[in-house]
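note to self — DONT lose this again. spent like an hour looking for the file last time. sequence + predicted structure for the chain T wanted, 271 res
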Amino acid sequence: MAAGRLAPTPSGHLHLGNALAFGAAWLSARASGARVLLRVEDLDRGRARDDVAAAQRDDLRWLGLDWDEETAPQSERRYALDGIPVFRCVCTRATRLYLGCFCRHKAHDRGHWRFDTPRGPVAFVDRASGPQVFEPDEDPILMRDDGEAAYPMAVVMDDHRDGVSEVVRGGDLLPATATQIRLYEVLGFTPPTWLHTPVLLGPDGKKLSKSHGSTELRALRTAGWTADRAWSVLLPLLGLRHFDPGDFDAQKVCRGPFVVDEEGRVSPHSG
């Protein structure tokens, strides 16, 4: 059965940008009759916190978002490089940036495992923005030298194992789709459909994050916001007037980016 997913990362509390993406994912899945899965993406075990994961579930419920099943969190999953062209790399980020990397042609017995990415542009269709073409990332890390999987590989394997047929997420991840499609290809998996929501920026012009504490849902709730008020801010960006899956149309989702001020007002980014 078709499925969409809500996949929060419990290293920081949810903010309005997260609510926009998760709301779109929920509306899209419910509109098509797909199941909604919840998956906690706690791959970064040094930063992931159980109390934050619990608070995120509470925020999702406060927004009116439910799920049909919670799948295993990433910390309980196992990942393998079988079938993926990789090489070991001992370069630092600075070395790769300024001197280049030649590890692909060496037989290192240590270092991170990098994806020997098939070259060439990747074309795909975003359900909101239409046809897209991106170059994949050049040789991203798939598994660290300590054996811990990195996000680019984990998210592809997890979505395949969980039966996710549609991925709805923030627009900042749009370029990463090319690399993920390359991984789907080498693994022989069928990729999902893609929909990317507008990027929300703080007053400083940077993407919303935990540094913009005033836009965190728990801060807004403390300030007296209701879920209806939050949706009144976000739904116009999804082309909706009411929180109703029956009215959801991916092609009406705005492209953005948009700026959110400290009062929760949203305006187009002029930069």
